[in-house]
Design a protein that fits this description.
131 residues, alpha+beta, 6-stranded mixed β-sheet, two-stranded antiparallel sheet, 31% strand, globular
Length: 131
């Protein structure tokens, strides 16, 4: 098992910390060619979750492939399993609930229609670091 780690330089010791779950989800989505991936920081805005990862798949098969890869990588790299997954069979909007992380994978039409970025416009957009 390979863990993605970030290094914190403390002066005396270098401490390795695992990548945040939202970043694992982003990298998994990117590996399946998701487009328009966005991370919203909802801490202090709502109590039901801390982060949204929002991505778009070009067609139902890609939406499902992105969802599958996100689930696999979160399980392998972070030991995370979803509490629930909604919309997988229809593949217009897949919602995977990981507690402090909600992963939304949309078709282009559903992404435009539901416009979560507009709905949660008071949330901070998290900068996704380059690989």
């Amino acid at each position: 098992m390979i863990l993605h780690c970030s290094t914190i330089f403390t002066g005396a010791l270098d401490i390795q910390s695992p990548a945040p779950t939202w970043l694992v989800a982003v990298r998994a989505a990117e590996s399946k060619k998701a487009s328009d991936t966005l991370v919203l920081d909802l801490r202090g805005i709502t109590s039901f979750t801390d982060f949204f990862v929002i991505s778009t798949g070009a067609n139902p098969r890609q939406v499902q492939a992105i969802s599958d890869e996100v689930g696999l990588q979160l399980k392998q790299q972070a030991g995370e399993l979803p509490f629930s997954i909604e919309g997988y069979n229809q593949a217009e909007w897949v919602l995977a609930d990981y507690g402090d992380l909600l992963v939304h994978i949309f078709s282009p039409k559903a992404r435009e229609y539901y416009s979560l970025e507009r709905l949660w416009r008071s949330a901070k957009t998290v900068e996704i670091p380059p690989e």
